[in-house]
Amino acid sequence: DVISLRAAPPNTAVLELTGKGGRALTVQASSLGGGRIMVVEMNGLRANFSGDLPTLIVQNVDQPGHVSEVTSMLAQRGVNIATMQLYRDHPGGNAVMIIETDKAVESLTWLESCEGITRVTFIDAEREE
Q1: What is the rounded CA–CA span in Å between residue 47 and residue 44?
Q2: Residue 129: its pLDDT value, please?
Q3: 24 near 30, Cβ under 8 Å?
Q4: pLDDT per residue as tens, the chain (129 positions)
Q5: By C-alpha distance, which of 129, 105, 128 is closest to 120?
Q6: How far is the C-alpha of 62 from the C-alpha of 45, rounded, in Å?
Q7: Which of 40, 20, 15 is nearest to 30 (CA)?
Q8: Strands (E), 1-129
Q9: Distance of alpha carbon 30 from alpha carbon 14, whole angstroms
Q10: Cβ neighbourhood burial of 12 (10 Å; 0-12, 13-18, 19+)
């Protein structure tokens, strides 16, 4: 289907994806030229990443402590954070952490089981399939 995106830059697309387990994901991304893209929205929450680095996307309830819990656990696993962005729709609502790292994050079950975490997505820029 073709839709009109108001206030979106040219060469912007919306992708509606469904995983093997049935989970849905809506992504809005814009072409930067030269084969590069910038993801600007995920499931209605603002974003800003290219996927050039391993990227951990954590969606959670906007409550104190989630950021420190995630960053502490990454440090314990020897994962260095290259960039980190935080977004929320409103105080106490839905929030998202977008964390670009220097290396892949192994096994995310520790994160998926944390209270208040609603979705965890990892994009491994180095992995080829």
Answers
A1: 9
A2: 46
A3: no
A4: 555 556 666 688 888 888 788 888 888 888 888 888 888 888 888 888 888 899 999 999 999 999 999 999 999 999 999 999 999 989 999 999 999 999 998 888 888 889 999 989 888 866 544
A5: 105
A6: 12
A7: 40
A8: 12-18, 24-33, 36-42, 45-49, 55-61, 81-88, 94-101, 117-123
A9: 9
A10: middle
**What are the backbone angles phi and psi of residue 106, rounded to the nearest 5°?**
-80, 145
Q: What is the pLDDT of residue 13?
A: 82
pTM reported for the whole predicted model: 0.77
* pLDDT score, position 77: 92
The CA distance from 108 to 91, in Å, is 26
3-state secondary structure (DSSP) of residue 76: helix
Inter-residue long-range contacts of 79-84, CB under 8 Å, 24+ positions, other chains counted: 79/103, 79/105, 82/53, 83/49, 83/53
What is the token pair recorded at 117? 């975490």
Alpha-carbon distance values, 34 to 37, 38, 49 (Å) = 9, 12, 16
